[in-house]
Write a structure and sequence with these properties.
181 residues, alpha+beta, nine-stranded mixed beta sheet, four-stranded antiparallel beta sheet, 37% strand, globular
Length: 181
């Protein structure tokens, strides 16, 4: 009798574990952010504050080239992270800044890992902070804080995205490019 009860308990534990795994999988799938995928050609034409993203990247963080392209920054911050990687942040206005991570200690080459902007042009459509966005044109994400976002990525990549923050009235509240690692 004792063996039968132990087997039933083991079976029940397995069923409960299976149900927990299934529920967790469903919640995880629902929590994934959906992206609006851009072709390589569309992605190459992205502009922040009327400047091609690729032009900003091509400066590789060189301050002279950045000044030629974007003007003099209001503020430059720099430092190292916990892994010894050098970073610089160029702030041009309260809503336009570009951050670089340097790939060598000589600061001769850097990669853009964050851009905050007032405007972005994607696939010929300009979107500006403070204006309404036509939500029917895009895949919309519901964020846990009640806001919404539109995320753009190149094809199926998800490392380098543009996130358009939207409030409950459909007004754009933020425009950011970031590298998710």
């Amino acid at each position: 009798m004792k063996i039968v009860i132990n087997n039933k308990i083991k079976t029940m534990k397995k069923i409960i574990l299976l149900v927990v795994v299934i529920i967790s999988t469903i919640f995880h799938a629902n929590a994934q952010m959906s992206t609006n995928q851009l072709s390589n050609e569309q992605y190459a034409q992205i502009k922040f504050n009327n400047v091609f993203k690729s032009s900003i990247e091509n400066t590789e963080g060189n301050s002279v080239q950045l000044q030629t392209l974007l003007g003099a920054p209001l503020q430059v911050s720099e430092g190292t992270d916990g892994y010894g990687e050098i970073w610089k942040e160029y702030k041009y206005t309260s809503n336009f800044e570009v951050h670089f991570a340097y790939t060598d200690s000589n600061e001769s080459s850097a990669e853009v890992y964050y851009i905050k902007s007032d405007s972005v042009q994607i696939n010929g459509t300009t979107m500006n902070v403070g204006t309404m966005i036509n939500l029917s044109n895009f895949i919309i994400n519901q964020n846990t804080d009640g806001t919404q976002s539109v995320i753009f990525s190149r094809m199926t990549e998800d490392c380098c995205v543009i996130v358009i923050g939207i409030n409950s009235n459909g007004i754009i509240t933020s425009i950011e490019y970031l590298v998710w690692t």
